Fold each of these.
Amino acid sequence: MDGMDTTLEDIYTQYPDTVKKNRKKHIVIKSETDEACPQIEANTRTIPGIISQRGCAYAGCKGVVVGPIKDMITITHGPVGCGYYSWGTRRNKARADATTPKDKIYSQLCFTTDMQEPDIVFGGDKKLAKMIDEIVSAFHPRAINICSTCPIGLIGDDIGAVAKAASERHGIQVLAYACEGYKGVSQSAGHHIANNNIMQNVVGTGTERKPGKHVINILGEYNIGGDGWEQERILQDCGYTVNSVLTGDASYVDIKNLHLADINLVQCHRSINYIAEMMETKYGIPWLKVNFIGIEATNQSLRQLAKCFNDPELEARTEEVIARETARIEPSLEQYRKICQGKKAFAFVGGSRSHHYQHLLKDLGMEVVVAGYEFAHRDDYEGRQVIPTIKSDADSKNIPELHLKPDETMYREAHQYLDLTKEQFEALKKEVPISYYEGMYPDMKSGEIMIDDCNHYELEELIKKLKPDLIFTGVRDKYIAEKMGIPAKQMHSYDYAGPYAGYNGAINFAHDVTNALSTPAWKLIVPPWEREEEPESEVQEGAPHA
Amino acid sequence: MLECVPEGKIEHTTGKINPAKTCQPIGAMYASLGIHGCLPHSHGSQGCCAYHRMHLTRHFRDQVLASSSSFTEGASVFGGASNLKTSIKNIFKIYNPDIIAIHTTCLSETIGDDVPNIIKQSEIPEGKVVIHTNTPSYVGSHITGFSNMCKSMVAYLAEAQGETKKEQVNVLPGFVNPGDMREIRRIVTALGIKLVMFPDTSGVLDAPLTSKYQMFPEGGATVAEIRDSGNSEVTLALGAFASNAAADLLQEKCGVTGIPLKLPIGLKATDDFIMALKDWFGVEIPKEIAIERGQVIDTLIDTHFHYQGKTVAVFGDPDHVIAMTEFAITMGMVPKYVLTGTPGKEFEATITKMLGDAGITGSKVKAEGDLFELHEWIREEKVDLMIGTTYGKYIARKEDIPLVRFGFPILDRAVHPLMPVVGYRGCLRLIEQISNALLERRDRDALDEDFELVL
């Protein structure tokens, strides 16, 4: 990948000067000579007019974090669109379980106040209050979320007051999220707003710890395509009880008891690190960054987790599960590797996935040469050690920070949660990165590119110049890449397949990726009448060579 | 599935549960994509643009490009003028479209940005065009947004060069798929009539895969064609909700006669479309069209016993539902529940008259309804078939009713955007889908002794 600088300079030339100056800061080439990751600009404003893949605070709050809570009714307060687009489109699978019967699962419904012009003029508080009353009397939900959209903040509806009054009227919790789309610079703002509210008002209000020797939470797992269920299967096999998955297939009832676990696993660092951190401050619960995407990554996460408890039986059981599962899937994986080996990929997804999937792709013999996030912060690229140096700008200051203190009755030292002595815990921290995330950078190779908020133009140019074999991205970029002759996999929705997590997920993923690379149509793009003229050059530039 | 929905009558008067409509900007974005070389631009915070692109992409399974003014809190407080001017500058420099079509969002509408004025203050390169439409999401629906953008195309672009009109027809096709627009073009061309159709998403959202990427594919009505629409003799406005506003403005601004018609979905509506063209231009109907019509009649006779007398719920966008209800009646079916999410009294009046003329009583008709309400009706009394968008699949599963996917959006099936439902060929496709859905159902439910080879 020599001359990557020149390649990038080439791409920048089309930009107006101000755009060029801005975008250069968002792109980093990994260099062997750099020990630490050079600073990358992230979580700053999108340039107006640039075709970005970013969403908004509402999408982050309702769409990602609170929407999947299956036994809460979430009302989108605003005009019809926002509620409509976030209805059923994130694939957060949910099912009945010991704490949530079928008739308390509302995931297939969409509730919106459908604000009309007079409501915008005269205010929508009354309409919202009336809708809550009707919903409570018809559905009897355990709790309600209210998520506001852009115009609500502007007209000044006091959703907090509506929620409080409704809560008193009906004797259930009604939570209000001021997650208007214009807050912050991307969906990331909404994650933070959601985390704050759940932490402040729900976590810690329950008293029932799930039975089990080692009780854990999985945070930042949204159960897209059933990912969370595959992780639970593996973790239960190893001997853990999953207290709650936040928020895929999560229930309000379970979230109330979140503080009663021994450790928090953090999967999507970007969307949920706030709660992990706040729980550490308030209750002392340690957290561990894990990744269950990829076989080696899953194995490593399981081993690190097992080490956290001073329990030889647990470690032995973990090794058994790893050996059994790995042996089970390895033969079929080998078949897929034959096709995937040596292929180059781009990955642009979310604020953690581009990193997670690098591990699974490595398992298949593929390399991610360009990777980036839509809404990450610097620490997701550079590692958490940079957090103290991140300057807060006007857009971030609009998102309130909760300054929690240790809880007077419930706080315990981290080592106590894990049944370790203080010394054992200190020793553990040297082996296992408790409460730390190293970011994406260490997993990139020299000459590879890390790119924040990659836009349409950059994607198009990078494809033309680097000719990847496969692209992992969202639905909006998928068809663009395919029109250029490059197979693309949707990594927000997995092209409606999955799970892709854990061992079974690795097989599903390998199968789907292999199909994407080898579907016969890729070799038929050039019509026969054109092929006759140039019989030997039938594979077009950019078309995959599978 | 939907066990949370309680038994019995539910008080539901406020807001929407399972809306049967969405917001204006997505309609405006779709219409803009029907102009050649156009980049739709969403003036507001970027989530709207992301959602709209995502939803259109899911329906069409093709690239949908659009930009956003990317408001943050500052722009929301101080106004979006600077964001829009920067956007326009960046868009022309980086993407070089022929035209930018701006639509507003509820954010920029609520703060009251004066978009035409901001456009006037912007740097627009020679030969390039910027148009806009107002699409507050708290008024109307996505169909209103589509209609508003079509009207803006006329307002900004259509010009009449003198009194003399060209012997050509404008067709406003309504919010239909690229496959439908392609079919409308084929029919008009087969009649030997010159046509200006806008918007036209054929070639844009059903573009071929050649691996030679074009950010702006070959399809779409060119700015020159839309300008020339002011010189046409007549405009056929297909679908009142989507197309009448633009046709009315074209008549007012350029003196082009506007003829309102239904979407040419189903036999009668297609007949009306063809007759309007024949009557105005005095053309002969070519044999190929006559054969197509005859095939529809032949098929209706061959298959009537599959569907005649069956009760059906039709839901979706008003122009689609009106035409589909008429066709269902033509097929001898009984439209029992007819519902659209888009507001508009004329919807209920039109459907009620249609049902009355056919002697059908006891049906429920509603504009500005939602799917939760449709489900309540169905729970009171079931129907044999549902015809509507993907969102009906939850009701269909819960109540065990076959669903024929029709309209916008269809998110869980492929190929439909390329397959026309308009015209006589569209009739055949609808008959096939409806018949087969009911026959599949019959096979599935049949006892072993009733399971037969020939149906």
Amino acid sequence: MNKTQQILFDEPGPRAQRRIRIATVLGAVLLAGALAAAVYQFASHGELAAARWEPFTTWPIWRYLLNGLWATLRAAAATAVLSAVLGLLLALGRLSTHRPLRWLAGAYVEVFRTVPTLLLIYVTLFALPQYGLNFPLFWKLVVPLVVSNSAAFAEIFRSGILALDRGQTEAGLAIGLRRGQVMALVVLPQALLQLAPSLVSQLVGLLKDTSLGFVVSYTELLYSGQVLASYTHLLIQTFLVVALIYLVVNASLSKFARVLQARNGRFGGRRKRRAVELPPALLEGNTPR
Amino acid sequence: MEALTAHLSQLGHGLVTTVELTVVTTVGAMLLGIVVATLRIAPVPLLRAIGTAYVEVFQNLPLLALLVLFVFALPTIGITFPLFTSAAIVIAVYEGAYLAEAIRAGINTVGVGQAEAARAIGLTFGQSLRHVILPQGLRAVIQPIGNICIALLMNTSLAAAVGVVELTQAANNVNLVEAQPIAVFTGAGLAYMLLALIIGQVTGLLERRLAIVR
């Protein structure tokens, strides 16, 4: 029972417990009905036949799909590194004291936050080659993803930097650091620690974006699934397995983000306690007890 | 510029399809989001589990993979819809997971006293949700919901990858004929930015009108 649930209902009494039992049974019946309908639908079209699922117990099929997953992870890693670096530069640009720099970075972020990635992919596929910019397949996927994800990263970094207490910057300036030094030595290390969960969540979004490789025929996981399905004619089985792989990978990443979130909370707590412990003389009579 | 004006009707149709898809899926996703958020905070453990599973699954699967599964694979078990309907269903189901989380965050901002007061005057779980909690919770998260709607607008472009001729696809088709990529794609990009701007303005307006200052 977390806070959300506690605010909405009390510890259930006998009548509420009966209602909860009824709702559980009804929910279970509905769920079972939906599952039965799905199974019936599969069975009546012969998609449940063992022969149509058996290939997914064999190594060659899995090796092919895992190759696709590996390509997905490579594209995601390249996109993540490049867009994190570019995003950080853009965030610093937006917060810069130079007006033109601020304006340019701001325009970049606003434009590429509101233009669909697929449109950028079409530009890379069909427009840039006319101007002599014909990237290899891998970069035809990664470049547009970097362009749009760097805008998202920039916003995450900017909000993290802005969320940090102003006093941190002022203290840095007061001890004679230059603005750049304050940013590098004081502000960024703290902001990045706080942002770790958001950055990992953004990785999930980015990894999902790599499925656009489907459009550029880069053999990442989804396109591999497509190739495999047209070869084996096991359409629905293949795409369900592909979906399951995505689910496992991304749910693990999401879980990692939640762990980081929880850990951050603990960091904050410890810092606060230490601050309270340090000057006991000052705090006497002030601590609520 | 000529490439744009010569194919204005084609691009216009694409734009209309994008707007239709955005409006239909926003409404659908909003309703789904409210239902799923309600499930996630319901007193019944099984319903909570269903809500959590929904959010986990649809936040962690790529939208394009869902579209491909729905449009290309479901027909093999006899489930077919018109293309536009399929795309609308999938996008609504996908964005519903994000809206559910935003709405749940909004519900978390409602003071404990409000819920207790609702219970004290004898409202049931459903009544207190409908009359007390949701109206306040939704108002608290207008801005995040607006951001999700802008993401939804951008995601409607993925329908192009399964054959819906919306703005992105229309721009691509025009470019394949005219070979004027700069004009065509810039035009489409500006249209998306304009639509995003409108959503942003509407959310801003709603927020000013409805936000509760505490």
